[in-house]
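Shipment paperwork, digital attachment
Item: protein structure file
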Amino acid sequence: MLQKFTSVKTTFICLGLLIGSLLAGVGLTLDKSHAVALKSLGRQLPLTWLFYEAAGNSVIATWFVMVCLVGGIFLIHLASCVMLRLFRLVQNGFSTRQFLFLLIHILFGLVMICHGISMAVGYKQSDIKMFAGNSTRLDNTYKLSVSEVRFGDDPALLKASFENQRALMSRENIHREKNYAHVTLTDGSRILSSGRAYVLSPLRAGSIRVTLTEFFIQGDSAEDTIGVKLTVTKNPVIPFFFITYAGMILSLIGFIVITRRNEKMPELP
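Attachment content:
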C-alpha cells in the first residue's frame, strides 16, 4: 500500500488534481458572482474569509476546501516519499545526487507548509484607498499615513476604461520611477518604516509589507485628486519561505548538473 502511495504515478495524479482544481478556479471567475467572491478571498487571509464570508457563496467555498484537501493529500504523499527514501538511503548509503534529490523533496514540502501557514497566520488588508494627507488604523495596532501621492505620467490614463487601461499601461506611457506614494507606518509613537512605495516595490518593515497596487483618480474637474490603493500584509513566514524556495532552486540546479555530468562520463573498460 505504501509503495503505491509513494509511486511516481501517485505524484502525477496529485499534481494533475492540483492543477485541475486551480484551473477550475480560473473558470469560476467567468461568473460575476463567483469572481466577486474570489476577489474577496484574495483581499484577506483565506482562513478569515472561510469563517466569515464563505457561507455567502457555497460554490467558491466548496472549491476552496477541495483545493486545500488536494494540497493536503499531496503534502502527505510528499512526506511519505521523503520518509521511504530516507529509510532506503540510511540502509544502502547515498551519493551526492541522491542526497540532493531527497533535499528537493524536503524543501518542496517546506514550501507547501509555508503556503498553508500563510493562509491562517498573519494579517492582510487590501484595497485601502488613500489620498495625500490621509491616515488609517490597521488591526487596532498600526497607523498607516500617506503624506504624498505622485503620479508623474498623464493623469488621463487613470480615467480610461478598464479595457483601455490594459492597452495603455505600457512602458512608453508609464514610468514606474515617477509614480509613488510616500507612506509612513507607525506603532503608537514609534515609526516602523517611512519612505516611498512604488508599484511592484513595496515599503517593508520587518515582516510587514505595504504594497502600492494601483493609482486612481477621483472627480471629473480640472482639479482631480489622485489617490492610491494599498495592500498591507504581515506574514512571519515570508523570510523563511524565500530562503526555503531559494534552497530548493539551488538544490534542483545542483541535481541537474550532477545528473548531466554523470551521463557524460565515459564508461570504464
